[in-house]
Amino acid sequence: MTAASLQGVGQPGGRAAGSLKAWQSQLTGYLYILPASILIFCFGLFPVGYALYMSTRRWRVVDRGYVGVENYLKAIGDPWSALLFVGGFLGLLGAWYLWTRPGSSRNPGYRVARIASLAVVAVSLWLIPTGWVGMLSAGDDRFLNAIPITFYFAFGSIPVQLLIALCLAYILFQKIRGQEFFRMIFFLPYITPVIATALIFRNIFSPRELSIANRGMQALGLPAQEWLFESERLLNLLFGTGFGGFLAGPSLALVSIVLFGIWTYVGYNTVIFLAGLGSIDPTLYEAAEIDGASHVQQLRWITFPLLSPVTFYLSVIGFIGTFKAFNHIFVMMEPSALGTVTTVSINIFNTFNKANQFGYASAQAVLLLVIILYMTFVQSKVLGERVFYG
Amino acid sequence: MADTQIVKPIGLSSARPRAIARRGRAVRYRLGRLVLYGVLLLGGIISLIPFAWMMSASLMTLGETVTRQLLPSVPRFENYVQAWQDANFARYFLNSAVIAAAILSGQLFTSILAGYAFARIEFKGRGLIFSIMLSTLMIQGMVTMIPNFLVIANRVPFIPLPGGSWLNTLQGITVPGMASVFSIFLLRQFFAQIPWELWDAARIDGSGHNLFLVRVVLPLSKPAIFTVTVFVFIGAWNEFLWPLLVTTTETWRPIMVGLYRFAEEAGSLMHLMMAGSMITIVPILILYFLTQKQYTEGIALTGLKG
Fold this sequence. Notes:
- The complex is a heterodimer.
- Chain A has 16 helices and two strands.
- In chain A, α2 (18-55) crosses α16, α6 packs antiparallel against α13 (295-324) and α7 crosses α11.
- Chain A has helices at 2-6, 18-55, 70-76, 79-100, 110-138, 141-172, 179-191, 194-204, 212-219, 234-239, 252-278, 282-290, 295-324, 327-332, 344-354, 358-382, and strands at 57-60, 62-66.
- By secondary structure, chain A is mostly helical.
- Chain A folds into two domains: 79-138; 140-386, MetI-like (MetI-like fold), CATH 1.10.3720.
- The two termini of chain A are 16 Å apart.
- By secondary structure, chain B is mostly helical.
- Chain B has two domains: 13-57; 78-305, MetI-like fold (Orthogonal Bundle).
- Chain B has 15 helices and no strands.
- Chain B starts with a helix and ends with a helix.
- Classes of the chains: A mainly alpha, B mainly alpha.
- The interface between A and B is large, with 105 and 106 residues.
């Protein structure tokens, strides 16, 4: 990103007359970035180092001294199980690497690489649950359970949100009358303060018989639900299965929050998709039409590939966004959801603000940062390689 | 395929079937349009229903909200007066306006200077410093939140604050937000497009960077600065978690924290809560309707450039 974005900021004025002038220009540059740099250092960079430092100390409101990795062990439980768990995920990444590396099937070693890849996947799929069970038995349930909840939140929100937004943007792009009007309406939820809209949705998804969500259910001939108060998991609720833990999917309370999140962010994604569609060269479509390509073919071979950088950007932004989401979950959280909506961010806040365990909360925050970095890395590897940059 | 179409002798096909085909195509086109508008309309309704419900509920009596009437029998505008007085919204409004103004002026100052330097002045380590700044975008707020809280409480010896703890002060809420990598990036992109001939001409006239920035770059960059202004103002107005942490008293409590506390206290008085929510979003809605074109285009620009 940086290398590309620095292009075009050339400096023909570099040939300054005399070294004094050049030196002066350098100094001006440093002076100009000084105020921003000080603030970004103090409140953006330094805290990362300080959080690492705090995470190695027993720190409950006041610092009680160095404890090494105790806070981390408290979170993840048994380090060997954690190692198995992490190894499983690294294995999946490695398997993907093995699978895609040989490229053409004519390459020597193609079949070997594929078989090795499948073997690694099998081992990883054994490692992950084994490690997870080991971690759960010794670690902090609240923190560990928050991880799959966060993943449900992210994977429940982003694909749906992107799909709806893509459809809306594609429709709006068809020379629709009132394009700007619709764009403005769709964007409204994104712009409105999230605390206010979360309060509205707290009423919409209220367990009362006559709440808007339950009226909708009624209109569809379905039974009323508890919505934000429902801690029962989705699969158990739908099919009456008896899965324990996170195997049964997200709780209905989390689904309600996901729906609210989708409502909020669809407009933002639509606007960016629309801009992406607008930046595709129209002569490509004209050429395709002359060659007799159908609408579906144009969509498949022109629109999707040329839109892929935008899709990639939105999925990365969305992923980071759902992982740090706080405000609307915080407002919509009900005690009777029994912690089934407590994402990692919420859990960190509770550990810090309610339990006053500063050191332990910092350790959790560092672990969350590592998870996000890993996921962003995976996204840029797996999705990023499919992005077509013109 | 293209060839056959061109070679096809035009006069040979009779006119009638073609007219029918054309009409069929027109009907299909109309139907298609109808479906498209239907989808858009559905999306629009879903986007707007929560707002409609809020507006309606804010004018009801408590009894009507409990039985979930769709419309109030008589609109009660006095709900707004009562919510305004119950929650001390006047104070929160003023606080939020001052906070937003402080963050805005601070951020414009730091980002214009830094954006200009990164775009137009060559100095050693420019690329490196800029990449370090961009990399902080990857760090999520939960990591920095706890240390920042301690810094503002003046409990980190490494960063001593002038005048002791900044908890419950204006500077405690605003100073951490006075620089933004995002704003710097946006302004830098814009400043970089200004033609270098202007700089050469200005230098011949003997002006330096300061004068060039104020006299030439800023007037030319009004659209970009306007976009940043709207972004920053809306962001500051909607800010919740940080002020929640650093304000324990009402002195500098901003509107969103005030609304949250009000909802905690008056949770069952739904008509007042909806009136309160309505009050807090009105400034944002007005600002958005006035500037929505620049705003959405600014968003689209950042999305494509990112």
